[in-house]
Write a structure and sequence with these properties.
The chain is mainly α and 577 residues long. The chain contains 18 helices and ten strands.
Length: 577
């Protein structure tokens, strides 16, 4: 009997709501069923994003800038909805139901996208020559409406999945058990492997199918693969472990702000020990004098407590000092958060305008024609090479030189920002060379210039991503309260979201200022007639200004002691999506 009891864990429940039996629930097999959903999600999202701009310009006949903004708005929405998906999972549905529902939504979205690209009625007729001039009819409002509906169904599905898949996968291991704790560490490394595998398949095989076989077939494969993954996921329902939700950190933050607003006219006590606190002395978060307005949420007044004998605090009327300090810690992250958004704006150019550049250049490699979207494979290569060199060579040398195991998280972010500046400067020079070639042949495509000229900008931005991604994630996880790790992960994801949205805004402003409604200017409808090099140069300048603001923010910020490595690994997987 005692042996059977040792297999039970009180931190998770089985399908029927009883304490989970470690011998019968969870483990590697259940985690693998969950990872299948993640790999297919990555395959679908990246397979669509990296090659969508060629469909919008070549088939739907949208202007260059409009096509780029459609892609960045789609990606921005998908990442922004990760925060919403996390709130839904923590507050209402739980991780299992969130994954099940949103994976179906994404499968329906990719299925609708496959249909919209297959039916001739849902796309405009091909371009034709009219008096020696290429005449193209732009997609109608109805045709674009169906396309947008499918894209944003996918974005909603992606947001829900990204917020819950890795967390539910880690729930299948008990970190209080020594053996399963080690297995959880390996789970996160395998999580990264599945993400990388999905991305690699997306930017190579899936993009090739879209360009060389049939685009609708590529999207149909994604939809079918997701339905298969859903069936495999649901088949393990009675064998999963389910952890009870502690509630959404967003709700806790709103409660603190609401309580402080209600008591905004009250005077703060001179001694912070008079503020309300439940945690035993020495176990809560130490009070700080920064953002003192929020301290008013911890002033105890009549009517703040409810229940028998008035012993239960009303969270909307009073908060503990620890809860207030947790909110303050999240606020202190915001300057660094704001100054990392610009990197993802430069990143957005690599899956939009850089793919358009590639589509005009000589992409032949022997007898093989490289699809324009496949150039993003250099992102994956740059990330893998950079991380390998950093781990195998830089860290040992750095540790030998100054005794530290690598760069700090803020130094990694700074390195990523510097590489993005260099990458945009290189992209500007390369585009100037491409435009010179285009002018010499009157814009005839493909231009007699190899597409491999674009490799430096892909590699520099990809290497920058390797540094800033790990640096941001390390920073947001180790410098946030223990109870708000999911919230800080969502905060990190919003930098990607706002980076894509900022790209859309800058494109719209530059197009309006330099070309108006003429279809010319820096971001002309045909990039061979525009000045994309100047737009890249503008991004390089803005990135330099942003870097200065980051340095100021980093000097102002006072770091807290990092948490343990297991928390960091767990949060990294939860973020990576």
């Amino acid at each position: 009997m005692k042996e059977n009891m040792s297999w039970l864990t009180n931190e998770a429940e089985d399908y029927w709501g009883n304490p989970a039996d470690r011998s019968r629930t969870g483990g590697w097999l259940r985690a693998a069923q969950i990872l299948g959903i993640e790999m297919v999600e990555r395959l679908s999202t990246m397979g669509i994003a990296v090659n969508l701009v060629t469909y919008l310009t070549g088939t739907m006949h949208l202007p260059s800038a409009s096509s780029a903004n459609t892609v960045t708005d789609f990606m921005g929405t998908a990442y922004l909805l990760c925060l919403f998906g996390g709130f839904i999972a923590d507050s209402f549905l739980g991780r299992y139901r969130t994954i099940a529902i949103f994976s179906v939504v994404q499968a329906l979205g990719t299925g609708l996208l496959a249909t919209s690209t297959a039916l001739p009625q849902l796309r405009p007729p091909p371009c034709h020559k009219n008096g020696g001039i290429q005449a193209c009819q732009q997609a109608s409002g109805f045709q674009m409406g169906i396309l947008y509906l499918s894209l944003y169904l996918i974005a909603v599905g992606t947001g829900g999945l990204k917020s819950s898949v890795s967390g539910f996968g880690s729930d299948q291991f008990d970190d209080n058990d020594e053996k399963e704790s080690r297995q959880m560490t390996f789970f996160f490394s395998r999580f990264f492997f599945f993400i990388s595998l999905g991305t690699l398949l997306a930017v190579t095989i899936l993009v090739w199918i879209q360009d060389e076989v049939r685009r609708s077939l590529g999207y149909g494969i994604c939809s079918l693969a997701m339905f298969v993954a859903i069936i495999l996921f649901l088949s393990g329902s009675k064998k999963y472990r389910y952890k009870r939700s502690a509630g959404s950190p967003i709700t806790h933050i709103v409660e603190v702000v609401a309580a402080a607003m209600k008591k905004r006219k009250l005077e703060l006590p001179q001694d912070s020990s008079f503020l309300y606190e439940e945690a035993p002395q020495g176990t809560g978060i130490r009070h700080t004098d920064q953002f003192r307005f929020l301290d008013k949420a911890a002033i105890a007044t009549e009517g703040d407590f409810e229940g028998a004998g008035g012993s239960k605090p009303d969270a909307w009327k009073i908060s503990t000092v620890t809860r207030v300090e947790e909110v303050k810690m999240m606020i202190r992250l915001l300057p660094i958060w704001a100054t990392t958004i610009m990197f993802w704006t430069t990143y957005a150019q690599m899956i939009t305008f850089s793919v358009e550049q590639a589509s005009t250049m000589d992409r032949s490699m022997g007898h093989f024609q490289i699809p324009a979207g496949c150039l993003t494979v250099f992102f994956v290569c740059a990330i893998l090479v950079t991380l390998a060199v950093y781990d195998r060579f830089f860290i040992p040398l750095w540790k030998k030189w100054n005794g530290r195991p690598g760069l700090t998280n803020l130094q990694q972010i700074a390195t990523g920002l510097i590489l993005s500046i260099v990458g945009m400067a290189a992209a500007s020079l390369i585009e100037r060379k491409r435009l010179e070639v285009a002018k010499s042949v009157n814009g005839a495509t493909p231009l007699p210039i190899t597409v491999f000229y674009l490799v430096p900008q892909f590699f520099l931005i990809g290497s920058g991503e390797a540094f800033i991604y790990t640096g941001q994630l390390d920073f947001f996880i180790t410098q946030s309260p223990k109870g708000m790790k999911t919230m800080s992960t969502g905060l990190f994801l919003t930098t990607l979201s706002f980076g894509f949205f900022l790209s859309s805004l800058l494109v719209a402003i530059v197009k309006n200022v330099t070309g108006g409604s003429t279809g010319k200017g820096w971001l002309a409808d045909n990039i061979n007639h525009g000045r994309l090099d100047l737009f890249y140069g503008l991004l390089a300048i803005l990135s330099m200004v942003n870097f200065v603001m980051f340095i100021i923010s980093a000097i102002w910020y006072k770091p807290m002691k990092p948490n343990n490595s297991l928390q960091l690994k767990e949060a990294r997987a939860e973020e990576k999506c």
